[in-house]
Amino acid sequence: MTTLAVPTATEKSVEQPGSLQLFLRYLRRNKGLAVGLLILLGLVLFTAIGLMTINPKHAYPLSVATKKPPSLQFPFGTDFFGRDLKAAMVVGMWQTAVIGVIAGGLGTLIGVVLGFMSAYFGGKVDAIIRTVCQILTPIPVLLIQVVIAGSLDKRDVTIFTMALIVVLLAWMGPTLVIRAQVLTMKERQFVAVAKLSGVSDLGIIFKEILPNLLPFIAAAFVGQVFAAVFASFYLAVLGLGPLREPLLGNIIWAAQLQGAFFNGWWWWPIAPSVAMILILGSLALINMGLDELANPRVRRTE
Amino acid sequence: MTIDIATKTAGTSPASGTGEPVLRVEGLEVTYYTDLGRAKALDDVGFTLQSGQKLGMVGESGSGKSTMALAMMRMIKPPGRIEGGKVIVGGTDLMALDNEGMRKARLSKIAYIPQGAMNSLNPVTRIGEQMVDAIKSHISGESRSAIQDRCAHALRSVDLDPGVFRMYAHELSGGMKQRVCIAIGILLQPQVIIADEPTSALDVVTQRQVMETIDKVQDEINAAVILIGHDMGLMAQFVDQVAVMYAGRLVELASVQEMFTDPKHPYAQALISSLPSLDNKGVFQGIPGLAPSLLRLPSGCAFHPRCPHGQIELHRTVRPEPVILPGGRMVTCHLYNQEGHPRG
Amino acid sequence: MANLLELNNVSKVYTRGLINAHATVALQNFSLELKEDEPTILTVAGESGSGKTTLAMLLLGFITATTGQIIYKGKNIVSLHGDDRMAYRREVQAVFQDPFAVFNPFYTVDHLLTVPIKRFKLARTKAEARKKMDESLTAVGLRPEDVLGRFPHQLSGGQRQRINVARALLLKPRLLIADEPVSMVDASLRANILETLRNLQRDHGVSIIYITHDLTTAYHIAKSIIVLYRGGVMEAGDVDRVIKDPKHPYTKLLVDSIPWPNLDQRWGSEPIKAREGVATPGGCPFMPRCPAAMDVCKTRPPLFAIEPKHAAACYLYDKQPQVAMERLSGLLPV
Asked: CA A299 to CA B80: how far, in whole Å?
């Protein structure tokens, strides 16, 4: 029998497992998030390795033999215009990522700044921002994007202009969500205590409220990226994208234009379609997974 | 093991008395399987109650008193699991019922008024609709007028105007909302009512009103009442017997007089001496230390790290078992043997 | 002796609605003086809606008064700027009711202590700051190594509230507003926390305003008491006298309903009268529930002094000398 005296007047603290372990355990419960992250990881690896191994010139027309089915030399085959589809996929995914991140990032940034200003300062500022959001929200986004993209000079359409077109009507969502969250947080007691501890207004915004909004900001970002990628896809499928670039939507549009299925070139639209499904699917899963993380009430028992 | 308390308690319900107890809990065990380990929230808890009696259950947060109520209602959710035991209400073992049977038993045999019930009233439907819903989901085949009668009767029993039936929750004060919750609890005239901290958010006057209402309601339907709380003052004014929970175990069970004049378990003794009264102004006596985490219980007796007798080897290594003392009271402590005399 | 804090005829009225303006008087004509060199413990007791929380918010400068002024060391608090404002912030602190809500869930519990140390420049080096934190945590019965570095959800409610009180100890304010500091804490821990608060006043010269609806704890910790009902002062004076011998019908009802943990002290000797009608604006707010209501109560009763340190705002005592509301502080023993 041990003779060591048990320390009194203390609570034996329970060992906390490391944060990585807790994160992995959480992933086990939140399978959606886990699967989404896995697929995204796979896509990122494909693009990264691809960018290092392929010759980007092969993603453009007249670089390799045309209409070749999948083979060892051309794993995804080639298309009517002489593009190596594997190279095209890699470059296309990279460009999609760029559009997504730029548009997503810009939309989220606008949302955070306007949402914070609106909630923290209230009054006229809030009224203006809120009204603008509420007026713009019901506008049918698809129509406007098609109109804008359709009226641009073909030479001006680059992946960056595409990103801007998307952001134009996407920033309202995050603004309203962030505004709502800040309004609630403002009334929380830890903000009152921070005031009592001498923290300035700016300090409260950046040090007390902002860190607690990170899950919402992350969720908004993923949502924005999703909308941007999806918009770039359907605009390109309609033939409104930067036609030279091997954007996934463009490839499908070109394949459809040339009647790929009827001509037996089945491999041409298949690869970009599968890629698109994977990209959008993984983003959607991550979005839903983050929703659960951000909203503790939806979280299953911890 | 089960303990039968002799029903010689401060003059309460006349219709109660000896005979088959309306509630018998035996060997109830509940474990929570969490990411951080296994926590035994209830460890071999048992007691009996006659109709018309009031039992008060006290303990710190984490002692198991709310878990007790949820277990009796079979409302423990994963990662918690009921591992064993019996809960016999009026001859029926609730643990042996199938899901459908248990659903019917809730509210009709045993009712539970949870903590913060008044804040869980649906804000967008009228009170009456919620009462009717409660009735319909537990018994079937009652005519509309019979249901209305039940509701009106329940509202009158809690001193509310039957017009409350048509009102919304936000039109009522805190005390009135709590009384609505009690009314819902007695709609089907259950044999056992469990009230978990029914007055914690209410001011002292409304608290008295609500407790007097529970008293009146109990007299009317002759139910047994279990009051869960941590306010010893409330217990002194209201209950017949007091059960003290610590780290998932029932450490003492005695009549309210015995508990306040002669507590046996050191934890109960410390609780009683820390109570403020009009005579000892300015004297503060707390209990040193903190309640143990259920994930890492101390060896032997769970209270030993905070107990003045905690250094004795037996107390540090061997788990104490419940002991029945003369008069029917129970204590789970190494200091007492079968005859009720403290060990040397 | 200078006044630390003065409330001069402060009222707070909330109006709702643009067309049918509906006014709620949260606090009415309240005056109080807290002297700088006389630390005391004053209890403000009342149920919800009594105005006690409004009073706390006014004292802390979180809301502004509708009429009347709040003066801190001679200056109106709405006009405090810069260093003066920082001094006021530093010297008037609070302990709130909910032990969890005061912690920012993003940070560890250390954040609650490190932020004021930094903002009020209470330490020159990290080591000094850590030493001060350790001292205040030990003083409330916690082991620093057990709680520092942890997140709020990893600690128990009792530990969290003790850290709140440790923050107050650390800051050593001149005035501490304790708003129901023990109502969400287990009974076994209440004694500890109340003891700490009392030590703050006795050994460190901190004045405490203890806001509660629990007269039992109020009786034990405070010297003087003000009983509020619907924004008005009903009774005030020495806490011993007011609780052992309440004069105002509302205070009598309160004291009668206290659940004393003593089998010989039963509650409910008087039945609770159901509310009849609404209070007349400008009259006694307790009238609809008062068993002794008279016609004259339709005009608000002034304070009548029953003893030197005990007054009640009730016409039942109109033979006694009147006390103006501005002289409320004179009734409170220190």
From this structure: 16
Q: Taking CB atoms and an 8 Å limit, are B311 and A9 in contact across chains?
A: no
Number of domains chain B is built from: 2
C182 CB within 8 Å of a chain B CB: no
Beta strands in C142-286 (DSSP E): 175-179, 207-212, 224-229, 232-238
Contacts of A27 in chain B (CB under 8 A): none
Label residue B243 by pLDDT band (50, 70, 90).
Answer: very high
Shortest Cα distance from A105 to chain B (angstroms)?
35
Interface-testing mutation among A181, A197, A302, with chain C (most C C-beta atoms within 10 A): A197
| Residue B152, domain extent | 125-186
* d(CA B101, nearest CA chain C) in Å: 37
pTM of structure: 0.78
Q: Does B63 touch chain C (CB under 8 A)?
A: no
How would you classify the pairing of strands B224-229 and B192-196? Answer: parallel
- Tell whether B176 lies on the interface with C, counting CB pairs under 8 A: no
Write out the residue range of the structural domain in which residue A234 sits.
31-56+82-294
Q: Is C154 on the interface with B (CB under 8 A)?
A: no
Of B288, B313, B317, the CB nearest to A9: B288
- The answer to whether the CB atoms of A9 and B79 lie below 8 A apart is no
Chain A closest CA to B178's CA: distance in Å? 25
The DSSP string of C102-165 is TS-TTS-THHHHHHHHHHTT--SSHHHHHHHHHHHHHHTT--HHHHTT--GGGS-HHHHHHHHH
**What φ, ψ does residue C191 adopt, rounded to 5°?**
-55, -45
Q: How far apart are CA C13 and CA C9, in angstroms?
A: 13
**Contact state of C101 with A189 under an 8 Å Cβ cutoff:** yes
Backbone angles phi, psi at B116, to 5 degrees: 70, 25
Q: For the domain that residue A188 is a member of, what is the CATH number?
A: 1.10.3720.10
Structure token pair of residue C124: 């020159």
All residues of chain A having their beta carbon less than 8 Å from the beta carbon of residue C90 are 198
Give yes or no: residues B37 and B98 share one domain.
yes
Residue B118 located in a structural domain: no
Interface contact flag, C104 A212, Cβ < 8 Å: yes
| Residue that terminates a domain, selected from B213, B244, B274 | B274
Domain count, chain A: 1
**Class of residue B194 by CB neighbours under 10 A (exposed 0-12, middle 13-18, buried 19+):** buried
The answer to whether residue B229 sits within a structural domain is yes
Q: Which residue of C has its CA nearest to B212?
A: C268
Residue B11's pLDDT is 36
How far apart are the two ends of chain C, measured CA to CA in Å? 14
Buried b (16+ CB within 10 A) or exposed e, C181-196: bbebbbbbbbbbbbbb
Confirm whether A198 is domain-assigned: yes
In tens digits, chain C (334 residues) has pLDDT values of 578 888 999 999 888 766 766 778 888 889 998 888 888 899 999 887 888 989 999 999 898 899 999 999 888 988 888 888 889 999 999 999 888 889 998 899 999 999 999 999 888 999 999 999 999 999 888 889 888 988 888 888 888 999 999 999 899 899 999 999 988 887 777 888 888 898 888 888 899 999 988 888 888 889 999 999 988 999 999 999 999 999 999 999 888 888 887 777 777 776 777 666 677 778 888 888 888 888 888 888 888 999 888 999 998 888 888 888 888 888 888 7
Return the residue of A nearest to C60 by Cα: A196
CATH 3.40.50.300 fits C3-99+174-331, yes or no: yes
Please give the ipTM for the structure prediction: 0.85
* C-beta atoms of B305 and A14 within 8 A: no
* A11 within a domain of the structure (yes/no): no
Of B276, B283, B287, the CB nearest to C188: B287
- C107/A193 CB distance under 8 A: no
